[in-house]
Design brief:
heterodimer; A: about 550 residues; alpha/beta; TIM Barrel; 2 domains; eight-stranded parallel beta sheet; three-stranded mixed beta sheet; 16 helices; B: about 375 residues; alpha+beta; Glutamine Phosphoribosylpyrophosphate, subunit 1, domain 1; 16 strands; about 25% strand
Chain lengths: ~550, ~375
């Protein structure tokens, strides 16, 4: 900044930014790759003027004062161009000459990232690290009283149920009397949670679908994937692969015109219908696809004009009460597929989750309940919703499970937990903990993006620009120049890696607990934690 | 690992036969308990098959409270066996005042009740006696049921048997379940001692049920008064058996499909696959896990043995028409029936349920891949 430039309230120095670019003049080859790849144009090539003092030791020569120039990288400080820390510059640099560094104090950008009165919006998840799931340990190890099972050699059946399970007495009676028995799917307990076509790039979506198809058809793992709210590509709707897909309907109903019209042409039924009422990342707020990402393809699938932002309403606008929202909507969706497809709601974890659950216990059609905790991810949301709204998944799920136990319906309405599972990379341990707290299965999204596609986002405000379509890895972009970086085959291969490794790790957890015949849902005696208050709250053992 | 021994005999035999067999298998039990269930009784009880028999351990004050309570309801003593014990019990066995085996006559107002109603009331009565006993620590009630005697005590099985003089001629039965306990619970509690009993169903187990907590939660939420206690992780086996028969109306060949269902590929080939898939789904919370050999008896005195999904525990059946024996180990079988045709010994594997019906003419094997009998 020049000495006479005006300082405005939002004038920031590099020190004030959350990420600062460390650049090494000696190593830099001036190739320009870093400035070309930076998704937010936070750095630019620049010419620097530099004064050099020449103090030769000679008798005749006088010390002199010269000006030189050199070429290098300049970091912009305007809030609109702040570095997001994605470190793509470091990735492409041939000489390791550049890298973003996290500031050593709370940044000042946070106070200015509302220019024009527009609060910060971003992708990713709650920018708060840690969580209770990683602290839970599995303490009931079979020792001499019973042989621990062999995770590598014993048979295991890692399966769960999705759909309304009847009470045994009713089920047997209905079999005898040829009554209607709600459809139930036997699926793998790790579900890829709703990430829409639109939020994700076409290559990412294709990779996910290919990976899921491979897991099902080659490895015999009944993995299911939710579409999120954004419809489903027409060819997928008319293919046999639809059976691996959970179609999500949410308050914007995006894509459902296409889906409804495809029903007569469907070769197979979808796995299930998920009615999204809420999302852990932004509870009480609807889905959001910002205009940057609404190109012609996305617009066509969603049935909207291109180039406009698509905020879904926070609630289903056509309904005014829980009876309308839950009972009638569930029934309508059942009817659309001739009562052959399970339908279940997905809600944000909330202190009101129990009320929803109680309503479902009295609804004979509800095929489950998915609960999404505060650590869930999103493609786009207001930062305030992400960081400050929501309820942790562990206690919300536990309350719901114990409530089902108290009414004796713990096997009837499967609970699926989401939100922050694998947040710190411990996918199997987090999933197993939630299953033993009462979940029938878990939903993951962010972890899949990170593990299968190399998403760079983190809880220290790194990257998180999924909302504006500039994903430097091409995962959440609709710009072909960006999403061409992602090869669907590679994504599919990584999905398979993730599931096969998860399966081994899950067995390594449940086998020592003496479990293999059935998923240890609600096996809370196996859990312990080094925190008395949490132990009491979750009704698990306190261990020190 | 505990040791199990069961007898099904046309002629009543002494429980000492079972205790002698347990003694041969003594390395498998540690003196933390012995339990006996006798059914289809011989001797003096032969003439009173319908009279409910109360079995338990009482203090002097406990028996007075019991008498007052039972008389108040209208139960009159019909017959009793007095067990006289030496003043000094064997090492490890506590000194007790009274081991009670007492047959009652139903109160007059029960006469017109249906069988089912009587059975419900008997369970509630047993539970309230147990509750009274827990409050004052003066009564332990094991069973209160017609044609059934239960004896449990801490100590080495054979020593306890001799101490309680169980060789007494008055005490014999056609069906005997006996377990010598290897304690893997943290505290030794007589209520945690096998065999467990509810309404004519009784089971004993050699193993550890690692799915105990979710199963217990599920059973307790079924609204059946007798599904309580749960002092042992093995107690759920008898409740699941009771549930299978009384609430689901299924037979013994379905029991194994509930506790250790077939995997999906096997179900697809199974002639009753569609039904069994439904059963597996709706009874998912009753699936057991861990190593277990289960021996049990049904109200009609059918005896059975079944194994966990991986067949991690031993169990063998031997004998001939009129006298069959189930044992954890072959040495137990040898001790009880040395003359049997050993070629007919059978060790059930992971898909088998062995059944000896009340006629006791043959050993039937229900293989889990067979059709279910009652459905067709």
């Amino acid at each position: 900044m020049s000495s006479d430039a005006a300082i405005v309230p939002s004038s920031l120095s590099i020190k004030d930014l959350p990420w600062q670019i460390a650049w090494d003049l000696d190593k830099c080859t001036l190739c320009g790759k870093c400035t070309a790849i930076c998704p937010v144009h936070a750095i630019e090539p620049a010419v620097f003027r530099k004064r050099v003092m020449d103090t030769s030791a000679g008798v005749k020569a006088r010390p002199e004062n010269r000006f030189q120039t050199y070429y290098g990288i300049r970091q912009k400080t305007a809030p609109a161009y702040h570095c997001v820390g994605c470190a793509m510059c470091a990735m492409v640099c041939p000489n390791d000459a550049i890298m973003p560094m996290r500031t050593d104090e709370a940044d000042k950008l946070k106070f200015h990232i509302n220019q024009g009165g527009e609060p910060e919006r971003r992708g990713g998840r709650r920018n708060i690290a840690g969580g209770v799931l990683d602290q839970i340990k599995f303490i009931r190890i079979s020792m001499l009283t019973d042989p621990a099972l062999d995770a590598g050699r014993h048979e295991f059946e890692v399966r769960t149920l999705l759909g309304r399970v009847l009470a045994p007495e009713d089920n047997i009676r209905f079999v005898r009397e040829h009554g209607w028995i709600p459809p139930v799917r036997e699926i793998y307990p790790l579900i890829i949670g709703g990430m829409s076509f639109g939020a994700l790039s076409p290559t990412m979506w294709e990779g996910l679908q290919m990976g899921v198809a491979y897991l099902n058809e080659e490895l015999g793992m009944p993995v299911r994937i939710s579409t999120g709210e954004g419809g489903c590509p027409p060819r997928l709707l008319r293919s046999r692969f639809l059976q691996y897909v959970i179609l999500q309907i949410a308050s914007g109903y995006f894509g459902w015109d296409e889906i409804i019209h495809a029903i007569p042409e469907m070769k197979v039924d979808p796995c299930a219908i998920e009615i999204k009422y809420g999302q852990g990342a932004k509870p009480g707020d609807g889905g959001l696809l910002m205009w940057h990402k609404v190109n012609r393809l996305i617009a066509a699938i969603r049935g909207v004009p291109p180039g406009v932002s698509l905020p879904s309403p926070p609630t289903h606008q056509t309904q005014y009460s829980i009876e309308e929202s839950v009972a009638k909507m569930i029934q309508s969706m059942y009817m659309a597929w001739g009562f052959r497809v399970p339908v279940y709601p997905k809600i944000s974890a909330s202190s009101t989750a129990l009320a929803v659950l109680n309503n479902l216990t009295r609804n004979p059609y509800a095929g489950g309940l998915a609960i999404d905790g505060e650590d869930g991810g999103t493609g786009a949301a207001y930062n305030v919703s992400m960081d400050h709204m929501g309820h942790p998944i562990a206690s919300s799920l536990r309350d719901c499970y114990l409530n089902l136990v108290s009414v004796g319906q713990q096997n009837e309405i499967p609970l699926f937990a989401g939100g922050g599972i694998g947040k710190n990379g411990n996918l199997a341990a987090n999933a197993a903990a939630l299953i033993m707290l009462g979940a029938s299965g878990v939903q993951v999204g962010k972890y899949i993006m990170q593990a299968a596609a190399g998403c760079l986002g983190s809880e220290t405000a790194r990257c998180n620009i999924c909302n504006i379509g500039l994903c430097p890895k091409g995962i959440t972009s609709q710009d072909p120049r960006l999403y061409r970086r992602l090869d669907p085959e590679d994504v599919a291969r990584r999905i398979v890696d993730v599931y096969v490794a998860f399966d081994t790790e899950l067995r390594k957890i449940v086998a020592p607990l003496g479990r293999s015949t059935a998923l240890p849902i609600g096996m809370s005696d196996a859990l312990g934690i080094n925190d008395a208050a949490v132990a009491e709250r979750l009704k698990i053992k306190y261990v020190v | 690992m505990c040791r199990l021994f069961a007898i099904a005999s046309d002629t009543p035999v002494s429980p000492m036969m079972a205790l002698n067999a347990l003694d041969v298998m003594r390395e498998g039990h540690d003196g933390s308990g012995v339990g006996l269930v006798l059914r289809d009784l011989g001797g003096p009880f032969e003439e009173m098959k319908d009279a409910p028999i109360l079995s338990g351990i009482f203090t002097e004050s406990g028996i007075k409270r019991l008498d007052a309570y039972m008389i108040d309801i209208g139960f009159l003593t019909k017959y009793r066996i007095t067990i006289k014990t030496p003043k000094i019990p064997p090492p490890g066995t506590p000194r007790r005042d009274i081991y009670l085996i007492r047959a009652y006559e139903y109160p007059e107002e029960w006469e017109n009740l249906s069988e089912a109603e009587k059975h419900e009331r008997l369970v509630r009565l047993r539970l309230s006696l147990q509750e009274m006993g827990r409050e004052q620590k003066d009564m332990i009630v094991f069973s209160f049921w017609p044609d059934t005697i239960t004896i449990k005590e801490i100590g080495d099985p054979l020593t306890v048997g001799n101490y309680l003089e169980l060789g007494d001629k008055k005490l014999n039965a056609r069906i005997i379940l006996a377990q010598g306990r290897q304690n893997t619970n943290y505290a030794i509690d007589l209520y945690a001692c096998h065999p467990f009993f509810i309404q004519g169903f009784s089971t004993m187990t050699n193993g550890e049920n690692t799915a105990f907590v979710p199963i217990r939660e599920y059973l307790m939420s079924r609204g059946v008064p007798g599904y309580t206690g749960f002092y042992s992780d093995s107690e759920v086996f008898v409740h699941i058996l009771h549930y299978t028969f009384t609430r689901l109306g299924l037979g013994i060949d379905a029991y194994k499909h509930i506790i250790t269902p077939l995997q999906d590929d096997a179900l697809q080939e199974h002639p009753d696959g569609m039904f069994l898939k439904q059963l597996k789904h709706c009874c998912r919370k009753l699936i057991i896990d861990g190593p277990n050999c289960v021996i049990g008896v049904m109200p009609d005195n059918t005896l059975f043995m079944t194994q966990d999904r991986k067949k991690l525990r031993p169990g063998v059946v031997g004998g001939g028409p009129g006298m069959y024996v189930m044992s954890s180990e072959i040495c137990g079988l040898d001790a009880a029936l040395p003359q049997r045709n050993k070629k007919n010994d059978f060790q059930p594997m992971h898909l088998d349920t062995v059944v000896i019906d009340p006629a006791r003419r043959e050993v039937k094997i229900c293989h889990q891949m067979q059709r279910l009998s009652h459905l067709h």
